[in-house]
Amino acid sequence: xxxxxxxxxxxxxxxxxxxxxxxxxxxxxxxxxxxxxxxxxxxxxxxxxxxxxxxxxxxxxxxxxxxxxxxxxxxxxxxxxxxxxxxxxxxxxxxxxxxxxxxxxxxxxxxxxxxxxxxxxxxxxxxxxxxxxxxxxxxxxxxxxxxxxxxxxxxxxxxxxxxxxxxxxxxxxxxxxxxxxxxxxxxxxxxxxxxxxxxxxxxxxxxxxxxxxxxxxxxxxxxxxxxxxxxxxxxxxxxxxxxxxxxxxxxxxxxxxxxxxxxxxxxxx
Length: 269
Hints:
Elements: H1 2-25, H2 34-43, E1 49-51, E2 55-57, H3 59-82, H4 92-111, H5 116-135, E3 142-144, E4 150-152, H6 160-182, H7 184-191, H8 196-220, H9 228-260
Antiparallel strand pairs: 1-2, 3-4
Helix pairs in contact: 2-8, 3-5, 4-5, 4-9, 5-9, 6-7, 6-8, 6-9, 8-9
C-alpha cells in the first residue's frame, strides 16, 4: 500500500509540475490563426506535400500510401512465416489472428449467409485498414510541406477524399452482391439505398475529423499542450479506431446480405 501511495504521489506531483510549467509558459505567437489551422486540417489547401516531385498532394494521401504498404508487408510476412507454423494448440499470435478472422467471418455469416466468403474477406480488409489507419496518427510522423514547414501526417480517413473513396467502394461491393444474388433485380434493390455511400463516407469523415480538430485545437495553445494532448489524442484515436471499424463493417455486411438474398421462388406443386 505504501508503494502504491508513493507512486500515486509522484504522478500527482509530476502532473502539477507540468501544469505549472504550462501556465507559466503562456501562449506564443503563431504564423497562422486557430481558424486557419483548423480550416487546413479539413481542406489541406495550404500544408500540401510534394509526391516525389510530381504533384502537390494532401498529407492524408501520403499516410494512405504508408498504411497500405504496411498492411501489404504484414500480410505477406504473416502468410510466409506465421501461417505455415500454425499448430493445433495455438500460440498467442495464432490465437489473435484466429480471433480477428473469426470476428469478421461470423459477422459476414450472420448478416449475409448466402455469399459470406467474399463478404468476410472484404470487411476484414476494410476493418483492418480503418483500424490501422486511424491508429497511424498516434505515430506522429512528420513530413515537409512545399512551403518548407513541418506537418504531422494525419489519419488517411480524416481526408474527405479518402472517406468518400471508402464509402463508394463499400457501396460498389454491396451492388456486386445484389447483382450476384438477384441479377438485374439486385441492381434495383441496391439503387434504392442511393444515400448509402454518402452516409458511410461522411460518417467516417466526420468521426475521424472531430478527433483531429479537437487535438489540433488543444495543440494550438501552449498552455494546454503538455499533458492534455496525450489523453485527448489516445482516447479519441482508440475510440474512433474501434467504433468506426465496427460500424462500417457491420453496415456493409447487413446491406450486402439484404441485397444478395435470393428471391423466394414458388414451389412446384
